[in-house]
Amino acid sequence: MASTTAPASTIFRRPKQTSGWMSWLTTVDHKKIGIMYGYSAFFFFILGGLEALILRLQLAGPNGTVLDANEYNAMFTMHGTTMIFLFVMPVGAAFFNYMMPLMIGARDVAFPRMNALSFWIFIFGGIFLYSSFLFGTTGPPAGGNLPGGATDASWLGSTINGGWFMYQPNAGPRFSTGTVLDFGAIGLQILGLASLISAVNFIATIFNMRAKGMKLLRMPVFVWMTLVVAFLLLFSLPIIAVALFMVTFDRQLGTLFFDTFQGGDAILWQHLFWLFGHPEVYILILPAMGIVSETLPVFSRKPLFGYPAVVFAGAAIGFLGFGVWAHHMFASGITPVAQAAFGLATMTIAVPTGIKIFNWMGTMWMGKIKFTTPMLFSLGFVALFVIGGLSGVTHSIVPADWQQTDTYYIVAHFHYVLFGGAIFGIFAGLYYWFPKLTGRMLSERLGKLHFWLMFVGMNLTFGPMHWLGLQGMVRRTWKYPEEYNFGTWNMVVTVGAYTIALSILVFMINWVRSKRRGAESGMDPWDARTIEWSIPNPTPEWNFGVNPEVQALDDWWHRKYDEDDEGRPVRKAEADATIAQFHDQGVNPPAPIHLPSPSYFPFLAGSAFLAIGYGVIYHTKGWGLPLLAFGVILLLSSMIGWSLEPIEEEHEEVHA
User: Which helix (DSSP H) or strand (DSSP E) does residue 240 occupy?
Assistant: First the structure.
């Protein structure tokens, strides 16, 4: 062991630090893991977007011939699965991983290696799902024919085609033979395990690693939303895990949980799925709400209006989210009493959501608003989320829901909430925190072009879907006849979708260009309020040169500003000196800092799930059980090696 004392110019860094791509393979640094989550999620975002564009080509006009029925179902299923489980959830994890420890004054998360394990499980889960394109097989229903007119019951190249919701018994062994639905059930299990590990890690970090003086009601709203999402994951993922195990047992072991011909209950799947699925909606949207709660005060030059109300409204949304699942099932034959109860609950959950919206409006009221790109995306989030929320309230009216369900009205509502809401919030966060990652600024000119293209494209795409749905266009159908007169609005929708794609291309150009040649951000480019901006950009490996001590909500702002007699902010004379002092401490820590060691074992343990998944699907083949055994042995040996790895190793002294 190295000495625990060192010159003031010396720090202890991660021992045995590898370089190049190996440093990313073995890293346990929450910032690198957050970056890897972000790039991986964006890669899947591109895949999901391409699938959506193919769908829109098929539906641009009546009687489309781009895809047959089976191909359309496959594209539709993979688009939904990708966007929910491989983009919005992991991009939320990217923000949580990178920003949450900085915002509470921590050097890392509570369990750095578990953090790395969750990322690698996510990566291999995504690979497993998409490998169905190569290895998935399909076959006819009992006594039926293959979808799309195919004749070979074992043809390769199919992919998951039962919808992201995998309704039973359609996705069961009686009506969906082959392996494609096995890839879906097992792949979602793998991804769920990654999310569950992250949830436990984030809860432990927030409760145990906050900076001195950071009481719960001094935490930034984004950290609060991280905590709420983590608890939602903790309580909802076991529900879908049970349901997916039952599906896998039905398909692989011949059980009859959901086979209605043999006494099973297909409606049980809907109950289990939506007990997870509706909290899942808030798992997707709450991170964006947290981001917007950070950006609006900064660019309104005002503190967040009603901070405690926003915090408790977020917690209330999480709690009430578990009590509205059956509004997805009004057309499934549940009793009138249940319909009335869940309709009322659906109206109730609009109350805390409305509180947040009015608090955001109160924050902007009489503020000195700066229309930067992050602010534009935040405003877009508020506007579009309100539209999605209002259309959602109409679903609480049972007779109206009967008319709307399984039409494009539902598609419009869902995308106004999750595209207009979650994705606009995500881009607000990317533009706002880009300097923390790179020390540079994204181009405001390209950023505003990106915003307006996406805003216009979003409304062109999903606005007309409300009218198509009310006119009777059924969702999940691959074509429609010309005499229904759906063609004009569908062409508008397709033009909007390609406008969104153009906006994403602008963002990608902006990101690559700014990362290389963007203007340097300096220490605190937005004159922000929270403590992650009290350290240099890009973030040092050790985060804080000195462990911070928090004295108030928005502590960093209070270090720079006082208030006059009328409550108006007045910049302190010593503000610039304070910023310089924090910068120097961040660059040259005055005391030794020990950071966790990198490790190969999270990668090895994560890769084991790939072999386990294939082994379960192909256990009846000669090589299936050996592959399953190999995966289990690799997982166990990785865990044993992990447990024997020393907590502290020889440290590399680096002179700052």
Answer: helix 221-253
What is the Cα–Cα distance from 512 to 516, expressed in whole angstroms?
7
- Does residue 277 form part of some domain? yes
Burial of 520 (0-12, 13-18, 19+ CB in 10 A): exposed
pLDDT tens-digit readout, 87-134? 999 999 999 999 999 999 999 999 999 999 999 999 999 999 999 988
User: Cα(395)–Cα(652) distance, rounded to whole angstroms?
Assistant: 60
**According to the model, what pLDDT value does residue 69 have?**
87
The whole-angstrom separation of Cα 180 and Cα 199 is 29
Count CA atoms closer than 13 A to 434's CA, side-chain side. 26
- Give the residue among 397, 372, 426, 424 at the shortest CA–CA distance from 89: 426
What pLDDT score was predicted for residue 6? Answer: 40
- What are the CA-CA distances from residue 532 to residues 210, 308, 466, 538 (Å)? 13, 21, 41, 11
Longest distance between any two alpha carbons in the chain, whole Å: 82
What pLDDT digit, counting tens, does each position of 176-212 carry?
Answer: 888 889 999 999 999 999 999 999 999 999 999 999 9
Question: For 407-440, what is each residue's pLDDT tens digit?
Answer: 999 999 999 999 999 999 999 999 999 999 999 9
Asked if residue 321 is part of any domain, the answer here is yes
Q: For residue 284, is it within any domain?
A: yes
- Host domain of residue 273: 265-300+302-367
Q: Is 175 helix (H, G, I), strand (E, B) or coil?
A: coil
Cβ 248 vs Cβ 616: under 8 Å: yes
Number of DSSP helices (H) and strands (E) in the chain, helices first: 21, 6
Q: From residue 374, how far is each of 341, 431, 442, 448, 512 by CA, in Å?
A: 40, 5, 10, 9, 18
Radius of gyration of the chain (CA): 25
SS3 assignment, position 562: strand
CA distance 48 to 251: 27
pLDDT score of 61 more than 90: yes
Helices 487-517/424-438 angle, 10° precision: 10
Backbone angles phi, psi at 174, to 5 degrees: -70, -40
Residue 154 has pLDDT above 60, yes or no: no
Domain count of the chain? Answer: 1
Structure-token pair, residue 560: 């720079």
pTM of this prediction exceeds 0.90: yes
Torsion of CA 49, 140, 168, 250, to 10 degrees: -110
Q: What is the pLDDT of residue 9?
A: 39
What is the phi/psi pair of residue 524, to 5°? -140, 70
Q: Which residue has the tokens 């804080």?
A: 544
